[in-house]
Amino acid sequence: MDLTLDETQTMVQKAAREYASRVILPQAAAIDREERFPREILKGLAELGLMAVNVPEEYGGAGAGAVSYALAMQEVARACASTAVTMAVTNMVGEVIATFGTEEQKQKYNPKLATGEYAAGAFALSEPGAGSDPGGMSTTAVKDGSSWVIDGQKQWITSGAHAGVMVVWARTGDREKLPGTRGISCFLVEGGTPGLVIGKAEDKMGIRGSNTVSLTFDGCRVPESALLGELNGGFKIAMMALDGGRIGISCQAIGIARAALEESVQYARDRKQFDKPISEFQATQWKLADMQTELDASNLLAMRAAWLKQQRRPFSREASMAKVFATEAANRICNKAVQIHGGYGYIREFAAERHLRDVRVTMIYEGTSEVQRIVIARSALA
Question: What is the pTM of this model?
């Protein structure tokens, strides 16, 4: 694997870094404090092509590849984790439609996601009783003439209250004849569709500027053309989307951890105890050394997975390895950052406490650390 960035990747990274530093970072604390959905910031990301980085240009995307997307995600997450997760899910929705959609679906939805006409996309897979086990899904879609009628509930849906289009999974096959994940299909549901009820925004520990809601489908009727991919083929779509999504969450965690490390280095230089900067104490130096080492290792794992995806080679195992290592390392890094800041790390005047709150969820969504270890172990035992 060649780690040298090409011209496109360098350009995307530079554009994301400049916008994140100039526009997003100054607003990050307020976005968290006010639980503000950063609509104008997202529009700016769309104008830079960062809401559809890996979507082909003919459908409005940047067509810049998986590595460019990974680099951009790190830069945005370094500035604001809430903005990064909204960007991540919207990119994932766009890729899913561009990969599995009909020509009509691609032309209808991808440009709106890419340009910011839709503020965001949503990925509606999890349910109150079916998180890591999608085979336990109870939401159903029943054919009625030329329509599908969807009934059920979804939980933990990022950007659900703001999404222009949602990718929704529902059971279409008979549970006895097609048990588990075999009878699940995928649908495109537009925001505002009658029968789609948006729940209250969750009061979360972190990523508070990212909208997270429950969804209720109560006789929600969508046209026959809303079916995405093959009938009863929805599980394959979900797994392929999550593989790519795990690279994005790895990079989100890396971006948060990078911010925590940079702020810790600056604080250690500025903060004096016993008449000298705490950066001169070995205890602080060793923390910083471990933080930098784990950050670099995480980045290498994430870039390998992104490179394999871009080469259209198998990358499921590598994506899981990147996610479990990067997210757990990032949690350790952010925890050390709070420790280096001492009492100041526990107050909101400094960003260290926000980074620790924001990074915690990266070990949960897009597949928990436990699920990643199952994927990796299956590969090792194959």
Answer: 0.95
